[in-house]
Amino acid sequence: MVATAASPREGWSSRSAFILAAIGAAVGLGNLWRFPTLAGENGGGAFVLFYIGCVFLLGLPLLLAEIFIGRAGQSDAVGSIRNVAAQSGVSTRWSLFGGLGALAAFLIVSFYSVVAGWVLYYVGVFGMDLLQALLAGDPFRGALQGQSQEVIAGRMGNLFASPGLLLTMHLLFMGATLFTVARGVSGGIEKAATWLMPAFFVLLVGITIYGAVVGDVGEAVAFLFTPDWSKLTPEVMNAALGQALFSLSLGVAGIITYGSYIQEGTKLGSTAAAIAIADTGVALLAGLMIFPIVFAVGLDPAAGPTLVFQTLPFAFEAMPAGSLIGFLFFILILVAAITSSISLLEVPTAWGVGEMGWSRHKSALIFGAGAFAIGVFCLLGYNVLADVRPLGFWSIFAETDILDTVDGFTGKIMLPLGALLASLFIGWRADRRLLETTTGLSNGMFMVWRFLLAWVCPLAVTIILVTGLFPSLL
Ligand code: PHE
């Protein structure tokens, strides 16, 4: 290929900058909201251990595959796959799955921003509460003093009933995401990650220690790590597999895009392992942070999606310094969510720059505004458009509102499909020498990696895909 006279491609300033940004992308609502929700709903131990298995047998090989495509392809998702395919002498039509990934990322960021908007609202609620506590000269009191459980739980219903409030939060969050992406890779995304991720870890460890001191860690550890294998039903395994993909940001070409900004000569295998370990560590710590608090006050771990928004605030009411910790807790989730939404918006943005020749500003604005608009429909689905079932003709989506439909369609179909194609492409079609030299894996590791990608990943992901489409098979 002839080098063009275009300005040099943007990139990370160092390997650690990439690792931080990629951890920022991976660690998000998936770790702090979805993982505890699923672990709680699915009975703890067996789900958690099976999940860890999925991360290392399925997630890690795929993570390395996506990093490889980006590093070797040196372009946006579509362009990177096309380049790798061309260098491997196979059809460049494989690049279609990059386009599928970019579309999925665009759709995911639309509702991700809405959910992050709820978090932002709770930051506001607990921020006001903390302010009142400070003004009352009692900064370490429990949160939301004197409010009944009905009032606290009702807050979420009130939020959902208010299109204006939901819209404001969504706008603020999407605006911040767009602003960062528009500023570019090293100037925006990397800066955000290098400031926010250390703050994130300090908060995470701090609140976990708090939970250990005031909460019931013993029960939480037993719940999270004692497997009752009878609870490991096909549905639970399916949920764990899907969660592993989602949590590691796989199947949406996000890691391909971030990987394309890595400098030459970076060791990819250990980099991928660091990201997978950090992401899983954060999910487990999130469990160890949340469940001791939930158990200490005798609440139900299986509360579902409202666990974080309704159940935990009850707990913060009853705990010492609950006001302060509640505020920090929601800041923590917000920080994790924004570094993830940035990575989601970056995928279509890079596509617009690379394939359409748009400026970064223009591309970010087009996709940011488009995702915002779809998000508006999602949030109206809780109030004005509550009866709308966008894919109601399709049995698996017959009962799902707008947000859950976008979530379900991307999560159950697009994401596994993207992961399946990525594993087939790298497992079977990519040039072996190119793989070896770019990844720098030892011989033995290389064999294991390629075997997992060629056989284990396609099989497991096909199971997720088929059972997601035809749940009656389970
Ligand atoms: N991994 C992110 C999370 O756990 C979500 C995400 C998915 C981000 C896909 C980017 C791409 O919240």
What does this structure look like?
The chain crosses the membrane at residues 12-33, 45-65, 96-121, 160-181, 193-213, 240-261, 273-299, 319-345, 365-385, 413-430, 451-474. It is found in: Membrane. This is Sodium-dependent transporter. There is one protein chain. The chain is 75% helix and 0% strand. Mean pLDDT is 94; it is low at 1-5. The chain is built from 18 helices and no strands. The chain has one domain (15-473): Amino acid/polyamine transporter I, CATH 1.20.1740. Bound molecules: phenylalanine.
Q: Unreliable segments (pLDDT under 50, ≥5 consecutive)? A: 1-5
Helix count, DSSP H or I runs of 4 or more residues: 18
> How many DSSP E strands?
0
* Relative helix content: over 70%
What bound compounds does this protein have?
phenylalanine
Assign the CATH architecture: Up-down Bundle
The SSE string, one letter per element, is HHHHHHHHHHHHHHHHHH
Looking at CATH, which topology would you report? Amino acid/polyamine transporter I
Largest sheet: none
Average pLDDT, all residues: 94
The first-level CATH class name: Mainly Alpha
What percent strand?
under 5%
Characterize the overall form: globular
End-to-end separation: 49 Å
| Count of discrete structural domains | 1
Based on secondary structure, the structural category is: mainly alpha
Radius of gyration: 22 Å
